[in-house]
Specification:
Elements: E1 2-7, E2 11-12, H1 14-22, H2 26-34, E3 43-47, E4 56-63, H3 70-82, E5 91-95, H4 107-120, E6 147-151, H5 155-180, H6 188-196, H7 198-202, E7 205-209, H8 211-216, H9 220-226, E8 234-241, E9 250-260, H10 280-294, E10 300-310, E11 322-323, E12 331-332
Parallel strand pairs: 1-4, 1-5, 5-6, 9-10
Antiparallel strand pairs: 1-2, 3-4, 7-8, 8-10, 11-12
Helix pairs in contact: 3-4, 4-5, 5-10
């Protein structure tokens, strides 16, 4: 499959015009029949007749490309990827060019389009049961898109920019994977281990504080949140030193409640399953530090995440309890479902 861009007014790019001429005006006719005008969020899918080297052509509306900002290229890439299911072949080629004569697409913009496509193609299918084929027959593999080729004029710059953008994508996908894991698989200990594993793959320095270390640090507020769970609490400290030793670090803190029942002040059962995502803040911090390290960012950064599970138990904190904190302040607990501030 080949993907072409069309600007507002259904203006075809040079590649689109050449293909239209080779096919005897097939693209022009399809555009007219579909009432396609090249506006954003629109597209026309064309089955190419025999005689041409292509099976299908997807023309995607790009709107007013001349007024595009960086995020517009990201969104365009995502819109294109959303229309590529892989049903018509495992590979797709996206030709990134302008319809306006003499206008060029900068390589950095082509890279951002590729970034949008990469992020949009994310799927979490780790736990999906594979369908069994009929008896005596091998199951046919699921049709899926395996490869996307981006064609543009400024290839060298596009590759250079995309190398950095890809690191950001990988950090985002790492965070998404963490959020999508069920709570029975990803507790505080398992989360901490996945972050620790980043040391080998990225060069981050990761320090884990277990409950013994947290008690030494007098982090009573954090420990109080997790004391009703059978799973131990942790704090993970991620450090990236990409700037000079004298450069002050940027500090990012993320909440990592791997499952939040609300504790004794228990939440309603409806929607509680979504509370496996109450660690998304910590996942974002982990993904960010991973991205900074992977792209060798020239910045000093520290990411700190508290990893706990808020459960109702005979050992859980109660409304009315008074606990200490590392800051030296005492805290009266009025609602155990307000654990984030602890």
């Amino acid at each position: 499959m080949v993907v072409l861009l069309a600007e507002e007014g259904a203006k075809l790019t040079p590649a689109g015009k050449a293909l239209d001429d080779a096919g005897g005006g097939i693209l022009s006719r399809a555009i007219k029949v579909a009432g396609f005008e090249g506006k954003k969020k629109t597209a026309v899918d064309i089955l190419v007749p025999a005689g041409l080297a292509l099976a299908r052509v997807l023309i995607v509306g790009a709107g007013k490309v001349g007024s595009y900002e960086e995020t517009d290229w990201l969104k365009l890439g995502g819109a294109i990827r959303g229309r590529l299911s892989g049903k018509h072949g495992p590979e797709a080629t996206i030709i990134v060019e302008r319809a306006e004569e003499g206008a060029q697409v900068d390589g950095s913009d082509a890279a951002r389009l590729a970034t949008g496509a990469l992020l949009r193609g994310y799927r979490f299918t780790k736990y999906k049961t594979k369908k069994k084929g009929a008896e005596g027959k091998k199951e046919k593999p699921e049709k899926a898109l395996r490869k996307i080729v981006i064609q543009c004029a400024d290839v060298a710059n596009a590759r250079k920019v995309f190398a950095h953008e890809k690191a950001v994508c990988e950090g985002a996908m790492f965070a998404r994977d963490l959020v999508n894991e069920p709570a029975n698989v990803l507790g505080p200990k398992e989360f901490a281990k996945r972050v620790k594993d980043l040391e080998k793959s990225t060069g981050l320095k990761v320090t884990l504080l277990d409950e013994r270390a947290l008690k030494r640090e007098k982090m009573e507020a954090l420990l109080a949140v997790g004391q009703g769970s059978a799973r131990p609490s942790y704090v993970a400290i991620m450090e990236w030193k990409g700037a000079g030793a004298k450069e002050k670090p940027v500090a990012i803190v993320g909440k990592g409640v791997c499952f939040d029942t609300g504790g004794i002040s228990i939440k309603p059962s409806e929607g509680m399953g979504d509370m496996k995502g109450d660690m998304a803040g910590a996942a974002c911090v982990a993904g960010l530090l991973m991205a900074l390290a992977s792209r060798k960012a020239k910045v000093n950064a520290v990411g700190v995440i508290g990893l706990v599970e808020n459960m109702p138990d005979g050992n859980a904190i109660r409304p009315g309890d008074i606990i200490g904190s590392r800051a030296g302040k005492t805290i009266e607990v009025l609602n155990t479902d307000a654990e984030g501030r602890l």
